[in-house]
Amino acid sequence: MTSTPRVQILNVRKQFAATAGRTSSERDNVAVNDVSLDIAAGEFFSLLGPSGCGKTTLLRILAGFETPDAGKIMIDGVDMTNVPPNRRPTNLVFQHYALFPHLSVEKNVAFGLGYQKIRGDEARQRVAAALEQVQLIGFENRKPHQLSGGQKQRVALARALVLRPKVLLLDEPLSALDQKLRREMQVELKHLQRSLGITFVFVTHDQEEALVMSDRIAVMNAGRLEQVGPSAEVFERPRTEFVARFMGAANFFNGGARRFIVRPEKLSLRPADASVNGQLVSRPVTVVERLYQGLSTTWTVREAGGGVLSVYEQNSAATQQGSLVSEGQPALLCWDRCHEVEMEAKGE
Ligand SMILES: Nc1ncnc2c1ncn2[C@@H]1O[C@H](COP(=O)(O)OP(=O)(O)OP(=O)(O)O)[C@@H](O)[C@H]1O
Fold first, then answer.
1. Interface confidence (ipTM) of the complex
2. C-alpha distances in angstroms, 254 versus 260, 272, 286?
3. Among 24, 48, 76, 84, which residue's Cβ finds the most Cβ atoms within 10 Å?
4. DSSP three-state, residue 54
5. pLDDT digits (tens, 9 = 90+) for 151-185
6. Within its chain, how far is the Cα of 204 from the centroid?
7. Is the Cα dihedral 96, 174, 241, 252 positive or negative?
8. Is residue 100 within 6 Å of ligand 1 at its C-beta?
């Protein structure tokens, strides 16, 4: 017997009224278009896609801040579609923290407990526990303007965790942080999710961030789900051209009736006269450019037919010896057939 998913999104659709003066077609205003999805208890699930693809709208529908035009939201098998946000076992962490500037850290975190009639000792204990979870013990009396960006984000997180949601919804929570802090917070957030066992639904447009953090990823495009699967599967085996490009695998080959991709890190370059073992596919190319990036080198090559491809070479002890191919010269582009990923025929 399979257990009920924590979150079920069933044929959800949301269309916004056309903005005055906009000459968009009706289809442009469909922010979420017939989306169905199950998310398991304890899963770290990401909604990934470019700006405007509908991920925030879907998250807000889960939180209860938007009502779908059609479809249902179920949590633990209970229909939540028309339940207001404060009666759902969910909490939303916003991109820009939305802290109360005049309240201390402690009061910001305690804020939602009042609405749940949790006061006194229990409230104090829950606030202390939430501050400990996000490593902010000692910051109780500070005001938001006395905190760094990362600390503000922790307060926002503690404010959601203190309410003990079954599902934590996070809308690009790390996007205001600089790159280094963002990387640190990604790891921290993932550890926190693992230790608490709460289901996280995380919205991001950053594919690396989604890969680092998630158990599964749903890639969205123009209101629809393009692909849903474990992180490695979405990365290694994209099913559509959109997902392949979004995950940075823009090497497209045409072979007879077949159309497939091979990821840049699965390709290698050999000298034009090298003998290639029969297991590998090889094609003659011309090396266009070598881009040295320290940890790696990206080569741009051109096929005889004119197609431009990228080859990613990890910097290793072997590559220190110097490259066997050079710019402007012919070379052989090689790959193992098992790394060819077939693309589904394009939809409408
Ligand atoms: N309140 C609204 N009124 C009208 N249109 C809206 C509203 N909210 C969102 N939209 C439109 O719905 C579509 C999806 O928006 P949404 O914010 O869900 O996308 P997103 O993928 O989260 O984008 P971003 O990463 O830029 O936040 C967009 O075309 C957007 O302009």
1. 0.95
2. 7, 22, 18
3. 48
4. coil
5. 998 999 999 999 999 999 999 988 888 888 899 98
6. 5
7. positive
8. no
Which of helix, strand or coil describes residue 260?
Answer: strand
Q: Are 32 and 58 in contact (CB under 8 A)?
A: yes
Q: Is 333 in the pocket of ligand 1 (CB under 6 A)?
A: no
61: helix, strand or coil: helix
Helix (H, G, I), strand (E, B) or coil at 90: strand
Write the CB contacts of 28 (distance below 8 Å, at least 6 apart in sequence): none
Q: Which of 85, 97, 96 minimizes the C-alpha distance to 159?
A: 97
Write down the H helix ranges in 116-239.
Answer: 120-133, 149-161, 179-196, 207-213, 231-236
Q: Computed from CA positions of residues 57, 63, 64, 65, in that sequence, does the dihedral angle turn out positive or negative?
A: negative
Closest residue CA from atom 12 of ligand 1: 31
Res 67 pLDDT > 80:
yes
Stronger pLDDT, 336 or 29, i.e. the higher one: 336
Crossing angle of the two packed helices 149-161 and 120-133, in degrees rounded to 10: 130
Which pLDDT band, with edges at 50, 70 and 90, does 247 fall under? very high
Task: Answer whether 323's CB lies under 8 Å from 289's CB.
Answer: no
The two structure tokens encoding residue 172: 């690009």
pLDDT at res. 348: 41
Q: How far is the CA of 230 from the centre of ligand 1 (A)?
A: 26
Using a 6 Å cutoff on CB, does residue 91 contact ligand 1? no
Look at residues 19, 57, 9, 74 and name the one whose alpha carbon lies nearest to residue 222. Answer: 57
Q: Atom of ligand 1 at shortest distance to CA of 59?
A: 18
Q: Which tokens in the block code for residue 7?
A: 């979150």
Quickly count: other Cβ atoms within 10 Å of residue 330's Cβ. 14
Q: Which of 16, 33, 92, 170 to mutate to test the pocket of ligand 1 (most atoms within 8 A of CB)?
A: 16
Query: Would you state the pLDDT for residue 2?
Result: 64
d(CA 65, CA 62): 8
